[in-house]
Amino acid sequence: MDMPRLNTLPLPDSARTAYRCLRGLYRGVRAGRNWLLNVLDCPVVVLVYHRVAELYDDPEMIAVAPGNFRRQMEFLKQHVPILRLEDPWSDRPGPAVVITFDDGYADNVLQALPILEEVGVPASFFVSTAHLGTNQVFWWHRLEAVLLREGTFPARFELKDPRFGRAWATASFEQRQALYAELGMHMRRLDPDRRDAWIGQLEQWAGPAAVPADLHRLMTREELQLLAESPWAAVGAHSVSHTALAALTEAQQREEIFSSKQALETLTGQEITLFSYPFGRKSEYNRISIDLCRAAGFTRAAANFPGQVHRWTDPLQLPRHLVRNWDLETFAAELKGFWTR
Q1: Would you call 29 exposed, middle or buried from its count of C-beta atoms within 10 A (0-12, 13-18, 19+)?
Q2: CATH fold of 43-134+214-338, please?
Q3: What phi, psi does 156 have (nearest 5°)?
Q4: 202: closest CA among 135, 247, 145, 131?
Q5: What is the pLDDT of residues 247-290, one digit of tens each?
Q6: Between residues 227 and 35, which one has the greater pLDDT?
Q7: I want to staple 340 with a disulfide (CB 3.0 to 4.6 A). Which of 18, 31, 45, 215 is the partner?
Q8: How far is CA 148 from the centre of its chain?
Q9: pTM of the full predicted structure?
Q10: Rounded to whole angstroms, how far apart are CA atoms 338 and 184?
Q11: How far is Cα 45 from Cα 116, in angstroms, rounded to an integer?
Q12: Would you give the end-to-end CA distance of the chain in angstroms?
């Protein structure tokens, strides 16, 4: 899951213009470098999806409508070789793509899998195990249910935390949107107990909030087994609690990595050799995470920063490009840029 980021820096216009120019220059230099690398070695671009669903509200911007997803898959099928993440790629004839999914939402099985099977496109599905077969939802849906619902709210919210205590104005919906984005960025770097304490304070402050569990639920065990049985799907681990591993001790990371692998192997009857780091930016996992993935027997681990995969890329730090709910024209244009971004 990739939370949206807000540009909250109060920069003057001149500084903002300079920043944009420098950012454009950096991207141009990076694109040129990546183009040269692609000449030396045919690239693989790994795409990451989260959900295939029609959502009325999607503040995390992680859902792709089924119609758009089908058109995206058909476009890929027609225009570029599609590889399986679990297969060796040494004999690929040219540039190729790989399809992956993070988190383990039920719509991966109910919506995405039938489209993949009909079009004939393989994909890997990384599943967090804590909420499998339960009515519980990920913490960001609880945060959304508290802050982004209609109603009258207190004028301020004060978070009590020994290391990060402060207050925010919350009377208007726009103020609560800003709080949602800010807390979401901080909470992804917390351990589960501290994160639950923050949400508990919010829920007590705002009153009970109904979370539409059916809309946001994860797979049942039966749905996971159905996914594992499909010849077009590979199952991978995505930790237990979907916590940024860098926020945890080595012992906690070991538990998240090894236990998720063991649980999925028990449920699917298959060896699990693929892993995806929760959130997956470079600051959200560390060398301990990589070493533990190697010790657990994972052959590939997917991160969540842009780039291309080459023969020299660390197989336990594969870059990926996030796909949004784009129409076909936008998807084709974005895909073109993925080869050098």
Answers
A1: exposed
A2: TIM Barrel (3.20.20)
A3: -140, 150
A4: 145
A5: 999 999 999 999 999 999 999 999 999 999 999 999 999 999 99
A6: 227
A7: 31
A8: 21
A9: 0.89
A10: 27
A11: 18
A12: 20
Contacts of 28 (CB under 8 A, 6+ apart): none
Cα–Cα distance, 260 to 277 (Å, whole number): 12
pLDDT of residue 174: 96
Residue 185 clears pLDDT 80, i.e. is over it: yes
Domain chopping of the chain, boundaries? 12-41, 43-134+214-338, 139-210
pLDDT of 125-183, one tens digit each?
Answer: 999 999 998 988 999 999 999 999 988 999 999 999 998 889 999 999 999 999 999 99
* Calpha distance 130→242 (Å, rounded): 8
Assign 292 a pLDDT band (cuts: 50, 70, 90).
very high
Residue 301 pairs with which residues in a beta bridge? Answer: 275
